[in-house]
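Q: Structure for this?
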Amino acid sequence: MTTLTLNVNGTPYTVDAPPDMPLLWVLRDQLNLTGTKFGCGVGLCGACTVLVDGVTHRSCSTPVSTVGTGAITTIEGLSPTGQHAVQQAWLFESVSQCGYCQAGQILTTVALLSQTPQPTDADIDAAFTNTLCRCGTYQRIRQAVHRAAGAV
Amino acid sequence: MTQPTQLTRRAFLKLTLSAGGGVVIASYLAACATPTPAPTATVALPSPTLPRPSATPTLAPTATPEPETLLAPNLFVQIDPDGQVTLTIHRSEMGQGVRTSLAMILADELEAVWDQIKLVQAPANDKYGSQVTSGSGTIADNFDQLRLAGAAARELLIAAAAQLWGVPVSDCKAEQGLVIHTPSGKQYGYGDLVSTAKDLKLSGDPKLKDPSEFRYIGKSMPRVDEPAIVRGAATYGLDVRLPGQLFATIARCPVAGGTVTSYDDTAAKAIAGVKQVVQIPNGVAVLAENTWAAIQGRAALTVTWDEGSRASLSTDSMRQSLMDKVNKAIVNEKPDDKLTVLEAVYETPVLAHAPLEPVNCVADVRADGCDIWISTQNPVGVQTYVRNAIGLPTEVHVTMLGGGFGRRLEVDYAIEAAQVSKAAGVPVQVVWTRDDDIQHDFYRQPTYHWLRAGWDKQTKTLGLWRHYMAAPGINGIAYHGGQDVLQEGLDVTYNIDGRRTQALLTSMPLPTGPWRAVMNGPNAFANECFLDEVATALKQDPYAFRMSLLSDSDRLKPVVELAATKANWGGDLPTGHKQGLACHTTYGLTSVAMVAEVSVTKGVVHVHKVVCAVDCGLVVNPDIVVQQMEGGIVFGLTALLKGEITFDKGRVQQSNFHDYPLLQMSEMPQVEVYIVSSTRSPQGVGEMAVPPITPAVVNAVFAATGKRIRRTPIRPEDLA
């Protein structure tokens, strides 16, 4: 067990965890931030996506000891009232069905737009590789990405 | 409700009159408020105290006033003296929008203000009527009774106002949370009427609105759960946290039904965070402070299994059973030699449900009773089976579901969790990993189809149609089904003389359960692809052929016409693109037709576009219908293009999304949905897009390559 300080959504948290414990479970089970979801445990679905210094990380495959002082953003940290442009685009396009994957989809979008403000469809395809939606909301996710990019 | 001026392309839905020609275009609104770009939030979050478990999921009711001060004329509507309207939703939300659509039905008749409604998710209780969320039946089952429930409350409020004013009821109307005395304009808020209304009784059934008066029904009201979803605040089963809860994983025999002979938990208990190891009938549970420790602990267990009777189960043995069954049954099929005859065999594999939230359950078993928190499509089933398993009164609280698709009708994972909690003496969340979820499913059964068609050698008139289909039934815990399940969608509604079908129930030791659209998927695949083969043999256009075989009274006919027209069937397409058509009516209730536009490059099928037409009766929420068509298309495309579940020596050979892949963003076709305008009573859409998509694409693949696909998923060698 190691004692670590994590910066999550702008707040420092002190946790005790084995160094190899995935960040996902520290967030969900120790910090009770359950917005980040478990879908596969092997980095193939994206439901566990968080941002670390603005870059997407699959938290199920990110040992907590590797995060260091990186600024972690979870879905809860985007906006407490859902006012982030990407969240607003999600609501306007009525993207979600069951909603379980959407935290990962939203954070993937936030990261994409921070690097590529006007993504093409090909950019979107690439960014969303292995970011799965079993309900099949991909068409609306794409529309919401374009809307959030202001390209619509 | 105010209407924004801007319409998104997606929010613009086209309705077509099913008879009398003409196109009526109506616009539907995506959201009440036009969103404005907001700056990234820089709110500093307050320092939390850790740990901070939430005692109840967000769906549980918050404190309410004393019952005697409420107006609650039925189980679904409650109005507080302060005017707060609370609606109870008794079916499960798994993305198909029932929390929104059922609320719309209640709120419309009640004339409640949409933005001010609170929702409560009903716990398991017989008093609500069926709480089983399946068969795409929620709206069809509840439309009338929920209208009556909302209307009853409305009429009591009107009666109360009339009494207080001393005026005739007929001079009063309810509108948006107010009862208004029309001649004078004076008004009461609903809250002010509660103390009078609660003592009144209606003399008969309340009068329902004329459909022309609908305020919410028929509009794309925004999904009530989306604001919580985009903030990460929606509570799914896996998010439930009870005080003192442990997290558990269960080691189960790799062969379904196998049992524990012995186990060694020494290494497991040495893992930091592991608290207990307990045995239950299905296996050995490791309980820990967090999910990771429970997963690690289970990996450190050594268990010896008695694999039981299913250890011989294999994909080949299942296929052989089905093939033998069909071949034996068709031995006496002798075609008339006046006919030209065509035959084909179609097959589908075992499939897993794979909802993105793996199944899981929280159980809190105490000496006096049990509480369950669960993502379930079957709360009363869970309550019954858990109560029987542990011998204690059981309450079941229903959370949001991270996908259902039929998997969450079963009760296995609830029984297990209750047994673990009872054995361990603590509240526990049993977590299934993705491997568990894929390897211990109640699968969609494999199928084997033989079809034969025959037509007169001279006149080319079809005079023979046979469809024999073999599959096991549904043999789960809460769910069983036989011949009747296999017969779903087996027969076609085309006017073909000499039509005969036979469903051949074939038992095999495979655990099976209802999977989205159940046997309509495989049966439609076989029917609609074989019909295309017949059309090709007769040198007929697949669209014209279908139209010639469908009765004018068949609801499917205008739906096929609509899809083909909107897809510009037979028109110009980009080089290499071809179209395929398929149609199906599911449960005799909802008819769907699709045209898929496909190209095939180097053995890879690209689905560019799907045009979909649907007649589901009166539409409560058009955008939800569109969502379910989009989602069903993706679900069906995954089954057509992606993985299958195979068995060897009783064991499932797949374990995660690397060998049981799902469709990805880059593979998503452009989908257009056209809804037939109808006043027929509302029918379902949740499953109905799944049956036609596979044959539409397979028929397009034939058009593009000349190759017939007769088994799914499509393999590269099928296109070589």
